[in-house]
Amino acid sequence: MGNSNSKSHTCPIPSSAQPLSIHGTAHKPLSLIAAACAILTLVSALALATLHLTRYRAPKEQRQIIRILFAPFIFAVVAWGGIADYDIAAYIDPIGDVYESFCLCALFLLYIQFAAPRTTFGEEMFKAMEHAATVTDAKGGAWARLSWIYVFQFPLTELLSVIVLEATMATGSYCESSLSPRFGHVWVMIISTLGVVLAMMSIFRFYKRTKPVMKARRGLAKLVCFKGIVFLRFIQTWVFGILIDKNVLHHSKQFSYADLLYGIPNVLIAVEMLFFSASFWYAYAAGEYSAHAKPNEGSLNFFRAAVDAANPSDLVFGILRIFNVFTEMRYASLPKENDHNIPLTETYGGGFVDGAADEYHSNGGHGRRGLGGRRGRRQRY
Questions:
Q1: Tens-digit pLDDT profile for residues 248-264
Q2: Is 180 exposed, middle or buried, given 0-12, 13-18 or 19+ CB atoms closer than 10 A?
Q3: Do both 257 and 217 map to the same domain?
Q4: Which domain holds residue 373?
Q5: Based on the number of CB atoms within 10 Å of its own CB, is 121 exposed (0-12), middle (13-18) or buried (19 or more)?
Q6: Structure pTM?
Q7: Which residue, 85, 278, 349, 380, is most buried by CB atoms nearer than 10 A?
């Protein structure tokens, strides 16, 4: 009985499995192809990022763009590392997933800047909400807050999946070749899938509700280019997981079991990232930030621009703000009586923005439509 239970919790190695140290004749070409793609992807990303840094006239937008530009390189170098040493492939793969989660947050913040270019992050979500409510429905405020939660949960979800991955690998209950719920692999995939689906659906819905604004800023191209990366990595993860689980792939002299498990999927990612990096030159072009395109806006010098682009504080704030948004939504569901007796001491995010206090009093104590008078203020959606 005990022996049967022990076997049920043993990783079911496919009959075609081999030790990861065994390489097929295709291993070296796979590694060289991935390395070349990673280098070319880095060159492309650095060149385009340099153009943005020398034309750094819209920091709130270009900071997000530069973060996204390096996503293909991160994925490509992780893919190459997974081919170069199959023993570390499962450990370094989450690096790309975590960076992807922050890039999706950056894309969301970029879209918010397009929808509300002259506001701070404390207010622009409400601006975008107000715009969405005028073109769709009267519940734009609730939708905007839910979108914020669904997008910024993704880094937390990815962190959770990494914890599950590392914990199950440490306890011997992670089995890459099985999708059985007894092992950690399938749970890591499910957690990551839920996180990315919620984030992508929210970003796509944001694009649809602000489509007139996005058209002028190549919003669809930006979405398609980055969503393509997310979609391909997502599909390939599941496809190769199923093929390995069902023992469809078989090793040969050219391709060992490790080559099939890590080599081919990773070289596909490396090649795809090179093409996506090239497509970024159109979707995230630096031309719209040139002196000719923005003659009235000055540019930061290269060093200050690089420091600003590397500052992650807005992403950290976005994640922490999830809890604020939960609180606001809870207050919003409460009765509105005596709402006018609440003193207006601060706006959402702290401090008055764009004359919010004057407008609040000039409107008889009701504040701006769609903007709360203070953090935690009970608002009408």
A1: 777 677 788 788 888 88
A2: middle
A3: yes
A4: 337-381
A5: middle
A6: 0.77
A7: 349
